[in-house]
Every structure is written in structure tokens, then in C-alpha cells.
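User: Glyoxylase, beta-lactamase superfamily II, Xaviernesmea oryzae:
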Amino acid sequence: MAIPQVQGFYDERTGSIQYVVADSTTKACAIIDPVLDFDEKSGSVGTGNADAILAFISRRGLVVEWILDTHPHADHFSAARYLKVRTGARTGIGEHVRRVQQIWKDIYNWPDFACDGSQWDRLFADGETFEIGTLQGRVIYSPGHTAASVTYVVGDAAFIHDTLFMPDGGTARADFPGADAGRLWASIQAILALPDKTRLFTGHDYRPGGREARWESTVAEQRRDNPHVAGMDETGFIALREARDRTLPIPKLMLHALQVNIRGGELPPPEDNGRRYLKIPIGALLGSVWG
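Assistant: Predicted structure for Glyoxylase, beta-lactamase superfamily II:
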């Protein structure tokens, strides 16, 4: 089995991990889940995270072939569009992003918004393959956290987004619009059916107990050590997940981020004064925990 080179980049502000996965033979690489910096207090956007990735790629002499998102993120802006402009690489996401676009089009009241996934160069179906140099990638549709989530499997590495966290962090929430705890359980089981030594790269780490950030585990470690998985059945998992989700506040950037991320990372178009504006729907997520 091929062993790609994987480098993670941790964003302290959002707890997100961004990845560069590279083919050592050809120097081709893909960027997965890149973060566009955003300060909600000032409304400022920055490219520090994305530029650090570009600097790493330049130092290693890599060539970007793909910019991939695992799903439309609720806690940070995607830097996919910025990186596409800088590198010319193709962008991709799972084909069910169209369902998420439809959900949020209605929430934002955007009657003219195109919910066809045309904001990306490629929409991946379950089981579809792609290449990074001589490496072959495979897509596993992994809904539950969102209706559009996918896992990218490249050689012995799987990029599992917000399904499983590190074993001491449990699993992702399943209470966003279009999410479902039962589907999340099925997606986790599909990931854990991969070979025991498969390296699993998670999309977030919130540093339980204040430990250092970590983002790599294995299938065997997750089966053995994750309390949301070990000794658990579907009924127990759904009960656990739904009870916990009822206590969690919505991510602070959710209403900001989705209107950018369902556009493939493109900011809203400038208005007649040259400024861009984010639209915050009032009362769209009634019943959410305040935090």
C-alpha cells in the first residue's frame, strides 16, 4: 500500500487541521480543508494559514494538483478559492454539497443562488477515484455530521474530517441542518472497516485536558480507545450523541462561514460601494444553545 507524505497545519483559533498530502515520487500534492482567516470582531479576512501552506509547498518543491474540502465547514472559512487563484489547482468536494447548498440557500434567502455545485471543479461521488501524482485517492461518502461530508482515502491515509476526533475527543456533533446521528454512526463504521493500520487524520482537535494538539490516530486505536466507539452499538451511540449535542452551542462562525463555504470559499460579491457584506439571518436556528 502506498504511503503518502502527510503534513498537518493546526489553526489554534478554530482548532482546525489543514493537510498537505504529497506523492514523494512526483512531488504532486493535494491541500485538504484549508482555512481562510476571519476575525468576526473586526470583519477582517486574512490569508496567514493559507500562505503558510504555500510556503511549505514552495520549500518542498511540491506542485498542487488538488484543493479538497471534506464538507462545507461551519467553524471556519475555506481558503479553497484563494489557493486556486494562487496555484491554478482544481477544487473538489462531495457531490452532496448540492443538498447543503439548498438548505442554506433557503436560510439566507438567496433565490438566485445556484445550488448545482458549479462553484467547484469536481464533485465526487461515493467510491470515485482521483490521482495525486502516482497516488490514487478514493472517496467515501461519510454523512452524519453534514449531509455532504466525504472521507478521502489516499494510500494508507484517510482524511476523516468531522466524524471521529482523536480517541480522547470522541466524535463529531450531528445536530446541524441536514445532519443525523444514525448516519454518522454508519459513516464511522465504514471508516473503521479500513485496515487496522490505516492512518486517520481528523479535521479538528480541541485539546482535551489542555494537552498539545494532535490529529493522527489509526483505525485500531480508534476501535480500542474512543469511548464513543469501543463497546458501543448504534442505539447507544445515537443516544449519547443526541444527548451531548443538546448541550452544545452553535459554532460562533457558523452563520458567517456557511455563506462563504457553500460558494466554494468565495466571499460575497462587493456591493455598489465596493465592500463585501456577510448576511446574518435572525432566528434561523431557534432553540440552539447560547454560548
